Amino acid sequence: MTPPPNSIGSRNVAVIGAGAAGLVAARELRREGHTVTAYERQKQVGGLWVYTPNVEPDSLNIDPDRTIVHSSIYQSLRTNLPRECMGYSDFPFVTRPDDESRDPRRYPDHREVMRYLQDFAKEFEIEEMIRFETEVLRVEPAAENSREWRVQFRSSNGVTGEDIFDAVVVCNGHFTEPRLAHIPGIESWTGKQIHSHNYRVPDPFKDQVVIVIGNQSSGSDISRDIATLAKEVHIAAKSDAYENESSIYSNLHIHPTIDRVYSDGSVVFQDGKVVFADAIVHCTGYKYCFPFLETNGYVTVEDNRVGPLYKHVFPPALAPGLSFIGLPSMALQFFMFEIQSKWVASVISGPVNLPSEDKMMEDVIAFYAKLKSLGIPKRFTHFLTDPQWTPMFEKLKPHEAVLISQSEYFNWIAEQCGCSSIERWREEQYNIAIKKDEDTFRDDWDDDDQLIQEAYRDFAKFKPTKVCCST
Ligand code: FAD
């Protein structure tokens, strides 16, 4: 059979990063018959889930020459999703009663996620494909008009080198480069400031008055963590989602966003209320960042839009040689990494075709135009979520929801590569979980027993000895 025009067969493929995305990408690429080399600058697999008490010296991460600490995980972190829906589809994230050191909770701590990823890497013998302590410095086309890619790297002993690949799959994560919101007057505000990337424990905030900016997952968790020791914690939030909510922390207060701050330490909120604070914790999210990528300006990051990318994965002019796994946020991450990886692996080897470059570009342009017409800023380009669960998208009409709905996205990819899409129970568990934000949601749930049963019925297909009921 004549290979399709954009097929390059079973090839040599580089994967950058061995976090949850890189691990499953390496597995899917090898399953498809490719030869895989994964570069990982840390000593071990796990990416973001490799907890470290170390933080960057520059607490707002502004200095471009600072030493990067990859992880943004704080000590008390527990997952914000139930374990059943969080795992990869064919390697259930179940409890391990055979090992007392494991966390059996349904919303386990970060160590348990790390152990799960280590188990996954071991089960599928992924480590043999990884070059640890090897940082990728540059990724670029090997020559003008070449379909090959040059990867330059430096190992921890300072040795540099380069390899040539047929394709590069970028899985470097996007929770390391902080994003800061501008606050009028902040230049003269004299209190302490940190970004959540550098938050680990509440101790430095003992007896202090602390402002936490942002009430998404990290802001919500960190404010409660700090409230255990601080005198007062004031959350500055865009949405009024928590306004009527009661919290077990009487020292936790919710406000609208900050209007401005002053050199006397005062913080004035949009409703005119004033708080004199010791510290501000910026839980304002992260920026996409690919310092190693050189595409002659073809792939750019503009107001957190990485583009042009066909379906958040392939840059039309460089596909299938360059691809990105894991860019969409606000979605079921591990499942998404897995299904995107299956698509990339099968496109690189050829059985699955991409449209022509022009057609992909048309699709991208139409997508951007649609976002614009709906008034959705560029920085939400990679938000993959159902608008009905996301206050900022609430004004969209149901037919517009498809634009950014994760299930539509997963179904579309599944159709491309002939694999299964998201299971009903997984999607429903996710939809229930992301609406929860009360203090106790991780330990007090009784609304999805039926879905748990469905999940465990599905899990029985895989490694039955390891599948036990969640406690
Ligand atoms: P990462 O885990 O960041 O891995 C990227 C890897 O690339 C790293 O190992 C890094 O060292 C490596 N790397 C980067 N640059 C280079 C380079 N130049 N050379 C070599 N190696 C490089 N998701 C959930 O599903 N459930 C949760 O409960 C959850 N909680 C979260 C809590 C926080 C605070 C944050 C920030 C995110 C959370 N997430 C959660 C989302 C989480 O990011 C994803 O689940 C997932 O772990 C990201 O995987 P990744 O592989 O894309 O990125």
Automatic annotation (TrEMBL):
One Pfam family cited in the UniProt record for this chain? FMO-like
Entry keyword set: FAD, Flavoprotein, Monooxygenase, NADP, Oxidoreductase
Q: So which domain of life are we looking at? A: Eukaryota
Q: For this protein, what is the EC number?
A: 1.-.-.-
Listed InterPro entries: Flavin_mOase-like (IPR020946), FMO-like (IPR050346)
Cofactor(s) needed for function: FAD
For molecular function, the Gene Ontology terms on record are:
flavin adenine dinucleotide binding; N,N-dimethylaniline monooxygenase activity; NADP binding
Name the top EC class.
Answer: oxidoreductase
**Similarity comment: family membership:** Belongs to the FMO family.
Output this protein's name.
Flavin-containing monooxygenase
